[in-house]
Write a structure and sequence with these properties.
Neuraminidase, kelch repeat, Kelch-typ_b-propeller
Length: 571
């Protein structure tokens, strides 16, 4: 079996569970992003496409793109990266004619340098959908499908579909077949990869609240109404949805009278879909709310924010709950504002194993987003990006990032001051009462010093062991350089600068530290090996951590495997 195969097997055994610690980070990124709510944010590769929204005065049709890798907003989102393949002169299929453009909106200035020209030679603005809020924007096969929303004119919401082709950054309004859903606002729309289509759970239409399902086949652009069994959720709007496998979860919303906190699941894996109410285990359930986000991270669903029951004054949340679909159980979070370092071990490591285990909870470090609703949340790898929203009349444009699985740090505790004064006696015959033979070389030691530093040495030198009266001990399985490094640590409380440069030497020293019960030395080795964890080394280091009972290093390796993509591991 090759090492990459071993790594892949190790990856498959890593449980996909939320970390016990998470961390909020305020990006504090400047720029010209609008203060909006009820916009959409769609992850395309490592970029977040933010479209539309309402700023308290008008709707927007601007497109803003955030690069998650560079942590910055792109200056011209409509600029095609590969200019050779970007031509506005070649129209996409079924595109609305350019003379139906929305001249009253705000984003055409971004396209000035790339405008196509009419037969008369006059420049024409490319087609962009009308400004809106409360719409959806769903990624499917490299295209973003914008459905419905509130345009701010007329009694009903929009009933249109627009497609942004990401490869060319061109919009089109396609001609669809079948019977469309009708006006949609504050609805949800999720792409089902196994069904090759987008399922819409309709919210409001401008006059009433609805709960009907519609399906758009992205290959034929045909609308249909799925055959569904079971009892559907009651009519609502401003709810949220999340897809886990073939199960679509619907939570909360507003039914025209009150905010909700019920949870339903739509099973879409069978030919006939089925609605059912989720029977939640435990007493913990989030407060009723609307306008929250419901985001999947490693098969767990993260609920953040939203507006609460009171209307005057407005009540918003900034709490975080995690729902486990397998356990059908909610987990809450505990906020710690002043903790600066995530450690690999928790209080449970020191608990009595016979105690009843406490209810699990997640500690969230840092000051996260303020109270809000109408925001968006997008997941890239293990991080959640929360953007904008509003709290009453206050409109926001900040972005926070929640690292749901922050890299653990190995801890190193302080050594005794006495050790720092004993260095000159290391491997010195002066006052020595014991010597060790390692790889044919003699190394001098002092029983009192070794016993104070190591419980293993203290046991060896105690009555009942033959080493107690011996003046020489042969260590056949110990490398000389490793033993000298360990002895130097016992006398000085630290290691020489080069002692942990080699991974093999660090692993050998880790084993020796475990054998001689030197916890602080083990921590130093764990810290050094943490920096050496990589694709080529993680399996070997993890095996060493298991053999040496190095809990921190094991967690570090598991974190690396959990956050490394399987295709990379197998390439």
């Amino acid at each position: 079996m090759f090492r990459h195969d071993l790594i892949a097997n190790e990856f498959s055994n890593v449980p996909e569970v939320p970390a016990m610690y998470m961390r909020w980070e305020d990006t504090r990124i400047g720029g010209t992003t609008p203060t909006i709510k009820n916009h959409t944010a769609t992850l395309v590769g490592s970029r977040i496409f933010v479209f539309g929204g309402y700023d308290g005065r008008r709707n927007h049709n601007s497109l803003h793109v955030f690069d998650c890798d560079k942590m910055e907003w792109e200056r011209n989102p409509y600029e095609q990266r590969d200019r050779s393949s970007f031509s506005l002169a070649s129209p996409p299929r079924l595109t609305r004619p350019a003379n139906n453009r929305n001249d009253g909106n705000d984003d055409f200035l971004l396209l000035t340098a790339s405008r196509s020209r009419s037969q008369s030679g006059q420049s024409q603005r490319p087609y962009v959908p009308a400004g809106r809020n409360g719409h959806t924007a769903t990624l499917a096969d490299g295209c973003v499908y914008v459905i419905g929303g509130w345009l701010g004119s007329g009694p009903l919401a929009a009933n249109d579909v627009h497609i942004l082709h990401v490869d060319t950054m061109r919009w089109e309004e396609p001609v669809t077949k079948g019977v469309p859903p009708g006006p949609c606002n504050m609805h949800t729309a999720d792409y089902l990869p196994h069904a090759r289509g987008i399922v819409v759970f309709r919210g409001g239409n401008g006059r009433e609240y609805l709960n009907d399902l519609h399906f758009l086949d992205i290959d034929t652009l045909t609308w249909s109404k799925p055959q569904v069994r079971g009892v559907a959720p009651e009519p609502r709007a401003n709810h949220c949805s999340a897809l886990v496998g073939t199960k679509l979860y619907i939570f909360g919303g507003w039914n025209g009278r009150k905010r909700l906190n019920d949870l339903y699941v739509l099973e879409t894996g069978a030919p006939e879909w089925t609605w059912s109410s989720v029977r939640v285990h435990g007493d913990l359930v989030p407060h009723p709310r609307a306008g929250m986000t419901f985001t999947v991270v490693r098969d767990k669903i993260f609920l953040f924010g939203g507006s609460g029951p009171s209307a005057a004054p407005a009540k918003c949340f900034n709490d975080l709950f995690i729902f486990d679909p397998q356990l059908a159980k909610w987990t809450d979070t505990i906020v710690e504002l002043d903790k600066s370092t995530v450690v690999a071990c928790t209080a449970q490591d020191d608990a009595n194993p016979n105690d009843t285990p406490p209810e699990p909870h997640i500690v969230v470090i840092g000051d996260g987003p303020s109270r809000r609703a109408g925001h968006t949340c997008v997941v890239h790898q293990r991080k959640m990006f929360v953007f904008s929203g509003s709290y009453g009349s206050e409109y926001l444009h900040d972005m926070y990032v929640l690292d749901t699985d922050p890299a653990p740090c190995a801890r190193v505790s302080l050594c005794s001051n006495l050790q720092s004064s004993l260095g000159r006696f290391c491997n010195s015959p002066e006052f020595a009462d014991i010597s060790f033979v390692v790889e044919g070389s003699r190394v001098f030691g002092h029983k009192i010093v070794l016993s104070l530093g190591s419980d293993r040495f203290r046991a060896l030198f105690s009555a009942g062991f033959r080493e107690a009266s011996a003046t020489e001990i042969v260590l056949p399985d110990m490398r000389l350089d490793v033993f000298e490094a360990m002895l130097s640590y016992l006398y000085r409380g630290s290691l020489e600068a080069h002692a942990l440069d080699s991974m093999d030497h660090a692993i050998e020293l880790l084993m020796a530290a475990d054998e001689y019960m030197l916890d602080h030395l083990k921590q130093l080795c764990e810290t050094a090996l943490q920096a050496m964890v990589a694709l080529e080394t993680v399996h070997e280091i993890l095996q060493a951590a298991d053999r040496a009972n190095a809990a921190q290093l094991r967690v570090i390796c598991k974190h690396f495997l959990r956050n490394a993509a399987p295709p990379t591991l197998l390439s």
